[in-house]
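Annual report, structural modelling task.

Input specification for the zinc ion complex:
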Amino acid sequence: MQAKKCKDCEKNAAPRKVRCSSCDYRHEKQVRPYETAFRQWRNSVAARQAKAPESRKHEYKFEITLEQFKEFARPVDLLDKRGRYATSLHIDRKENEKGYVIDNLQPLENSDNVRKENERRAKRKAYDWELAERRRLGQYASEDEAKADEGKSVFYYAVSGESPNFPKAPY
Ligand SMILES: [Zn+2]
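The model returned the following structure:
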């Protein structure tokens, strides 16, 4: 008995299906572009969440529906503007902490994102000597500052990367 051939390429076998898997993917992308892009996006966020340390998993919380994605992507023509040029668009979280919820998303040009990431790194690197000294002495400037530091050791900051003012040893 001869195996069933793919309807599109007529080369690969397509058992129990009309198209082989690569033609099927191409076809889906063509007839259901938003669904395909949404699924890829959701999967890539899930993959990043799986790799993230426990303290950062919440940054990849994903609560976007397909409908929300369409409403977000259509007006800015996101699907056609994806890519690796400086002016290409991608989906950015305004605050990483809040994860992927619709109010936290904005379309951003790649070049803007590079700038944003650099700012974030610079902020994380900034060393607040005075805060470090207050922390060392356990004498905080305010109740709020003490509260924010509560239960957090230097080790906590080192692992979570949470504080932009993590006091790195100056040697
Ligand atoms: Zn095929």
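The chain has a mean pLDDT of 84.
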